[in-house]
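Following up on my earlier thread - several people asked me to post the actual chain instead of describing it. Fair enough. Here it is, all 103 residues.
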Amino acid sequence: MSNEIVRKDGTDSMLTIGPGPISMEGLAPSQVNELRMLAAKKGIDLAADAAQKQMQLQAAMAEVDGTLNAAKRLVASGARGSITATSQTATGSISIKIKKGLF
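Reply from S.P.:
Thanks for posting it. Predicted structure:
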């Protein structure tokens, strides 16, 4: 299967785009099928990426929760100290710095 799709009329444009839905008019049936398969693959890739980003977010949230619980224990113990943590997210990072006591 080729990645190049050429219209039957020989123009460079694969699809006719205008107001309303995209038209696949002028494409051979095999090209329509290939285009549908490419769209389905892209949909699967996007869904997998979204799932991965969701897992990264959940992991970062769990790390932040753990840091906050450690801070609560530090406060409850009456001890002095500091807690610094950085959690990676899908779009960057979350940095937390908590100080308890005289500094």
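The CA atoms of residues 51 and 57 lie 10 Å apart. That should answer part of your original question.
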